[in-house]
Methyltransferase domain-containing protein
Amino acid sequence: MSDAAAGAVPPARRGRQPWAVRLGLSPRFHAFCARVPGLRHIARSEGAALFDIVQGFVQSQALLALVELRVLHRLAEGPVPLSALAGPAGVPAERMAILCKAGAGLGLMACRRGMWRLTVRGAAFLTVPGLEAMVRHHPVLYRDLADPVAFFRGETQPELAGFWPYVFGAGGAADPELAARYSALMADSQGLVAADTLRMVDLRGVRHLMDVGGGTGAFLAAAGTAHPALRMTLFDLPAVVPAATARFAAAGMAGRVEIVAGSFRDDPLPRGADAVSLVRVLYDHSDATVAALLRAVHDALPAGGRIVVSEPMSGGDSPDPATDVYFSVYTLAMQTGRTRSGAEIARMLVQAGFSDVKTIAGFRPYVTSVVTAARSFNTDPQKSV
């Protein structure tokens, strides 16, 4: 097969490589750097970074083993010898020693005087909401990426797409068990997302906040705690209503929250709120669904009403090492949505009729970033583009 038939770019049409890339492609340059003391750090740092990429899948699987075997959980009770980890886990001591050293290499645990103990990073792993649930959920994604070439060619049927049936419409919500799995995983991580969102968004002056697709109400509960006078509406599928009702009752907010069951794909959004939040909602859905949702939010808000979009976002022209690797691949496996940049979301908001669009990069982009806007006083979205 010729290069042209294979889709290769003819040499005459190829751009000239930058000088730094040309050096990077030169084995002689790498050998030179390795010999010169002042330049060795270049070869060493680039080599280490490349090896981190190569071994990444082993790191994630070692972490999964530490979680499933509850090694870190046992260390949270205090330092123990290797035998106290190997026995309860049903792992031979010599193999547990290898796993524990891998955990030490990841910075999660350490051994001193024959006793294994947690590090600060390991303690943080057990404490940060959602991390453990995310890791335990990852085998689904790992299986989908078993043949990465076929995956990126679109020749596979990802298992992950079946894990989130709610994305395909209200039909998926008929399975309470699947809805519960979704809600539990999301609720574990939503606390951190809510905290970061509320640091970036000032809700002072908002009287009534509606959270669309808010699951069991983790974000609304955090917002209600931060703003005791805030009235709230939760709009989501019927299957999440019982857990949301219990959450608000336990938080003493039942009288401040109205829970409305429905699907934003099929049902009109409730009116009356002067702000609407979409927390980790847009990246689950196609451009057409997102455009329709943003128009529905625009129509549900009064003039000057605000919209808050909070989710991990692509770096756009400057790809982010977390969101453009993890979240972009994850949403590709879901088959229904995609990870968008803040600039893309901003353009979609303008097309839906919003104005005064602001993009706020999160200080932890892998948790969330934010785009806010206001309903334009011009009610014709086309005139706002």
Notes: The CA atoms of residues 68 and 109 lie 16 Å apart. Residues 176-200 form the longest helix (25 residues). The first strand starts at residue 109 and ends at 112. The mean pLDDT is 87.
